[in-house]
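To the wet lab folks,

You asked to see what we're planning to order before we commit. Fair enough. Below is the target structure as tokens, and below that is the sequence we designed to fit it. If anything looks off to you, flag it before the synthesis order goes out.
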């Protein structure tokens, strides 16, 4: 006679799944909030360490370069060594890095500790999403879990500016890193207590050569762009940075085309929707990073607003992003990604276009309207990126395709700060505001790129290239480059 209490067991299972989802979302929250909260603190960091614009650029880009370089490696390590183990390691490094950032005695130390923080951060979101995909095995539950996951992105983005402004304005910039410590420690304990360990049945081979080359490529371009104004564009160091980046880029293309299981399969880019998603991700996040970097310095340094006021002024943009992301998701689900991408591109370009005319006397109402329009654009752009990146890809390839799109987001953010910072380097006060117009023109150009690529990557021709790429990849023999057991989860 059976005495199994099915309802009780179901309730316990639901509770456990809820805790696992909440734990994974905690990692997304702290990483997401870090993107905006640090930007709000930049003027205070500048005053504290007497930093140049280049120093502020490194504060942001040291983090994003490392994240971009290690995202795909972290996913492979998690498949091989265990997702829970790598996730906990990432939480520990991110928490330790945050604590050390709050104690940094100088700008150089802050940049070094940001790098440590980024190494941990690269192990969080992709691995957490893989944990969700493996834990929520029922399609309906997985879909709901992914919906919660996606909503946390918007929440963290909205909370970041306000929380950062309050902390910087009342306690000081070091407090923005303190908030990560208790959250990180709680997530480590919850992971150990509730998250099951999992591995891929046949993890992909590691590709250390390509990994090193990608680091050199991204670091070379970023260092050359940030340090160029101060050291001179013809200095041996700057020429060497760009030369190393070119050699590394050629090396990646050559080595990856010959490997059976490359870190980045060049054949993916034969699909116009995939290439379009990668380029759109790059342009959209370059626009966002440029917006946050320029606007924070404009509001606090040029206009003289407090960190709290600056955070509140940015809030309408962040809140609009949360709302429009849901509308965009509905358009994508209805098979209309082109509409979402065109709205995104037009709004990003229009918002930045208004900001190209700002002065130190521009009315607040005009600024808020521009922020809201920009928020509409960025809210609409994210759902079609993830969808288009995996459109037409074999199921076994969707995780890798989404990881590449996620890497393009981080690369775009890195260069967005590097390029806009280059254009305002050496300018202060009214001179900064005038120089920022060129930076806003770059952000506007990114919106135009989204329009063009969004249209071109959703045509009938583009769909045919995706089908050809699908057929090419699916025809690989067992053990070939495209047959593997990575989870088809979307990395954010």
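Sequence we intend to order:
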């Amino acid at each position: 006679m059976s005495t199994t209490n099915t309802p009780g067991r179901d309730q316990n299972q639901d509770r456990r799944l809820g805790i696992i989802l909440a734990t994974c979302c905690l990692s997304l929250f702290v990483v997401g909030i870090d993107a905006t909260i640090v930007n709000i603190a930049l003027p205070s960091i500048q005053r504290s360490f007497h930093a140049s614009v280049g120093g502020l650029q490194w504060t942001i880009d040291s983090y994003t370069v490392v994240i971009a370089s290690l995202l795909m490696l972290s996913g492979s390590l998690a498949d091989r060594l265990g997702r829970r183990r790598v996730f906990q390691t990432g939480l520990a490094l991110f928490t330790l890095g945050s604590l050390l950032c709050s104690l940094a005695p100088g700008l150089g130390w802050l940049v070094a500790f940001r790098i440590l923080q980024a190494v941990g951060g690269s192990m969080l979101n992709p691995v957490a999403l893989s944990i969700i995909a493996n834990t929520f095995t029922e399609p309906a539950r997985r879909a709901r879990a992914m919906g919660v996951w996606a909503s946390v992105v918007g929440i963290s983005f909205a909370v970041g500016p306000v929380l950062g402004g309050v902390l910087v304005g009342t306690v000081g910039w070091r407090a923005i890193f303190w908030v990560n410590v208790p959250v990180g420690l709680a997530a480590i304990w919850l992971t150990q207590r509730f998250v099951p360990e999992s591995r891929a049945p046949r993890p992909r081979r590691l590709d250390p050569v390509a990994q090193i080359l990608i680091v050199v490529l991204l670091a070379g371009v970023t260092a050359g762009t940030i340090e160029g104004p101060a050291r001179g564009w013809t200095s041996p160091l700057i020429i060497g940075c760009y030369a190393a980046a070119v050699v590394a880029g050629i090396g990646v293309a050559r080595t990856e085309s010959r490997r059976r299981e490359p870190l980045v399969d060049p054949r993916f880019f034969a699909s116009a929707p995939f290439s379009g998603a990668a380029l759109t991700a790059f342009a959209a996040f370059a626009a966002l990073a440029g917006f946050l970097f320029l606007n924070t310095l404009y509001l606090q340094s040029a206009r003289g607003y407090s960190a709290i006021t600056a955070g509140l002024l940015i809030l309408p943009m962040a809140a609009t992003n949360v709302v429009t992301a849901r509308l965009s998701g509905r358009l994508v689900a209805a098979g209309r990604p082109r509409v979402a991408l065109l709205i995104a591109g037009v709004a990003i370009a229009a918002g930045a276009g208004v900001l190209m005319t700002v002065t130190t006397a521009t009315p607040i109402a005009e600024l808020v309207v521009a922020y809201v329009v920009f928020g509409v654009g960025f809210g609409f752009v994210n759902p079609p990126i993830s969808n288009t990146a995996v459109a037409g890809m074999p199921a076994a390839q969707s995780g890798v395709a989404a990881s590449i799109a996620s890497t393009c987001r981080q690369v775009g953010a890195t260069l967005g700060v590097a390029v806009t910072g280059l254009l305002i380097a050496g300018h202060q006060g009214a001179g900064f505001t005038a120089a920022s117009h060129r930076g806003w023109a770059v952000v506007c150009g990114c919106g135009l790129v989204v329009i063009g690529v969004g249209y071109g990557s959703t045509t009938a021709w583009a769909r045919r290239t995706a089908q050809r790429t699908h057929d090419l990849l699916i025809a690989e023999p067992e053990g070939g480059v495209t047959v593997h057991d990575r989870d088809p989860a979307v990395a954010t």
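Structural context that might help your review: The radius of gyration is 22 Å. Residues 477-492 have pLDDT under 50 and may be disordered.

Thanks,
Computational group
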